[in-house]
Structures are given as C-alpha cells and as structure tokens.
Design a protein that fits this description.
single chain; alpha+beta; four-stranded mixed sheet; 5 helices; disordered N terminus; binds zinc ion
C-alpha cells in the first residue's frame, strides 16, 4: 500500500478504544507486506517480472512495486484507507475523524499520481479487492506501453 500512513501510530490508541472493528481494520492495514500486495508480487514474479519493493519514488512517497527502468510505480491501496467505491464503509465510532482521514489519504493519492506523472512515471493503482490476475495484467500493460514510449 503506497500512501499516507503518517499519523497512523498516533491514532492507534484512539482507534483501539473506539471500536473493535476499526482496530481490526487498522491491524489489517499494516504499511507494507499486506496480503494483496504479496499476492500481486508473487504473481508478477511468476510471470517473469523483476522489480523493487517498497521504494521511495518521491520525497516521503513510497510505492509498493516499482519498475525503475520503465518508470512504472504500482500502489496497492487498501479499500478502507483509500475509500474504495465498492467497499467504503463509514465507521460508526468517530465517523468525522475517519472521513477526514480517508479524505486526506485520497487527496494525497491524487497528488502523488499527478506529481509522478508530471516527471514521466506511469502509475498503476490496484485496489486490495481486485482480482490478482487482472491487476497483474494491468501492470504488464503499463510496462509494455512505458517501454514502447521509451524506445520511440
Ligand atoms: Zn474495495
């Protein structure tokens, strides 16, 4: 997962006391090596792709899977933290806090995309709920078009 976890630590105590569901979500959203992220890495590796993991691509911005030569950055976004349209749920406890937090994450995601694209990167954003095969197809398609545009 490639976005903002700044402040996650400081809110952990608040969250844990607010609701067990929210604290489970918090635990399920560790900063790196999440299940969907590892599954995608395994699938890409199986397909012969070689890449860097959890690499800083902009100051204070890390991508989950990075193809440095092709300049393709992959972010695996957690449905809760990044406000997935299919699975966005509003936590009952501290609803305003969560909406602000997720809104800030989304704004940061958007900013990261704009800034990376401005310096020639191709971005691939994968939702944690996405089928791994489909996600890997999208990454490979991005790689192909990035490599094409670099040889022209
Ligand atoms: Zn989702």
């Amino acid at each position: 997962m490639g976005a903002d976890r700044v402040g996650e630590h400081s809110v952990r105590r608040l969250v844990e006391s607010s609701s067990p569901a929210a604290s489970n979500r918090m635990r399920a959203n560790r900063r790196r090596d999440t299940k969907p992220e590892m599954a995608l890495r395994a699938e890409l590796h199986r397909r012969g792709c070689r890449f860097r993991v959890d690499l800083t691509v902009l100051p204070a911005r890390r991508a989950d899977v990075v193809f440095t030569k092709a300049r393709v950055a992959v972010f695996v976004d957690g449905c809760f933290w990044h406000g997935c349209p299919e699975h966005a749920t509003v936590a009952k406890a501290n609803a305003e806090f969560w909406q602000a937090k997720i809104g800030a994450n989304r704004a940061r995601d958007c900013d990261t995309t704009l800034r990376l694209e401005a310096v020639g990167w191709t971005m691939v954003r994968v939702w944690e709920h996405e089928d791994i095969g489909t996600a890997a197809d999208r990454v490979q398609a991005a790689l192909r078009s990035a490599n094409r545009s670099k040889t022209i």
